[in-house]
Design a protein that fits this description.
Bound molecules: delta-meso nitroheme
Radius of gyration: 23 Å
Helix content: 25-40%
Shape: globular
Largest sheet: 5 strands, antiparallel
Mean pLDDT: 95
Distance between the termini: 37 Å
Number of helices: 15
Length: 481
Amino acid sequence: MGTQEYTLEVDDIQGIIVRGYSKLEAACFVFLKITDAGKAKHWLANMANKIEDGTSNPADSCMNVAFTFEGLKALGLNSYTLSLFSNEFQEGMTCEYRSRILGDHGESAPDKWQWGGPKSEPIHILLMHYASDEETLQAFYANSSDAFKNDGLTQVGPKLETLSLNGKEHFGFADGISQPIIAGLSKTGAEENTLRAGEFILGYPNEYGQYTVSPMVKSADDSKEILHGDINGSEDHDFGRNGSYLVFRQLHQNVQEFWQFMDHETRNPDNSVNPDERIKLASKMVGRWPSGAPLVLSEDHDRPELGKENDFSYHNTDPQGLKCPVSSHVRRTNPRGSLPPNPGSKGAIAIAKRHRLLRRGRSYGKPVDPSLAPEAMLGSSDRNTERGLHFICFNGNIRRQFEFIQQTWVNNRNFAGLYTDPDPIIGDCDTLKHGQPSTFTMPAHPVRKRVHNLPRFVDVRGGAYFFMPGIRAIKYLATNS
Ligand code: N7H
């Protein structure tokens, strides 16, 4: 694939799509409802100049913005353009069919959600604030909220705070290591991990060599020619170009339950604890050790020097999952070309490339123990704090990427020839619903090992699908729609 087949318009792409703002350790996300569309457009027109684009890496603070389908409607976007957004975005995350495939039932059912569910206030806009530290963030947010409060918008639902755990998540594992490389941006890497921009950003070829369907505007409705023309040659102007679909899920993590389970399953015959086996079982479930070292590269113990390693595959070094179980979280959310019928073939790698996500999530809530060490977490009495991951990812096609991964790889108990194994970290383990307890299988010689009665370690507390437009499209929304 030549990167010269297109040039990315980074000055029109919102910054959080281009980079994760790792220097901006503080962040908060707020939801807005439009009460007066005219005033809200005035706010948006000002915002268009303040929104961070992808050209440079901000050092102090910055903002990005995304909209729900209802939000675009409330701003008066015309019905022709609205009809061209994908079905899943139009329908939203909480329709019955979607709850079924995403595994959102029981404690995770949308009617129990703190935001985004049928019992919550409708959300129109997601405003993402990032800053170098908490103090800067609070001042930045105060400024930003003064502006939207006076301009036809009300804040709805919780203000979602985040917390930096120094590159780890609440269970104590390094996160944010494996990301797809977008061809055309400065970073380069292995061909298997380099994807055409259209997988994440509308207006560019995707891994099928095609342009993902994009919401268009009739040229008569864009007389000031704010938007670019249709790359496919029609008379329409492209509202979707340089935009991306954003999936947001607030995922609560049952941290004590997680480590209690590992502890219980790995006790010695005399019931004494086995800390090494405890960590090993949890790492087998994740597919990486707490430092991030991949299990395929270090089978028996953690090797922090491999913590950032991402240049590996499964089919040549570990076809049966003896080192990294086929059922583990990272192996099923990105099988890296190891799926049957022809593991390692060009076809298998091509398939894997059509189901990738650009992850931009952040943790929230006080950790059980700042050390994130299992002993300390097991001994803590802090059981009720709300903590977890604000899971955020970008994709060009929610159905083919996020929903496919969640349905066909994460929640599918028959994934890659398994029988009763959902994803052990985030899968839907509900026994009552599936009629059978969930298991986690670790291939081994002479016989595989299996742990039974896996509980659900991650519950959903809120969620919604958003569209994050390019900067030109924001200007269009503010004036023409
Ligand atoms: Fe996952 N965890 O702590 O166990 N994830 N994840 N995830 N995840 C990854 O490689 C975790 C969630 C993916 O390319 C790592 O960056 C937790 C959802 C994908 O090799 C760790 C939660 C979805 C990858 C975790 C959670 C995914 C990945 C290893 C929820 C999609 C990259 C660090 C609370 C539906 C795989 C890294 C690859 C990696 C954890 C959620 C997907 C440690 C705790 C909902 C694609």
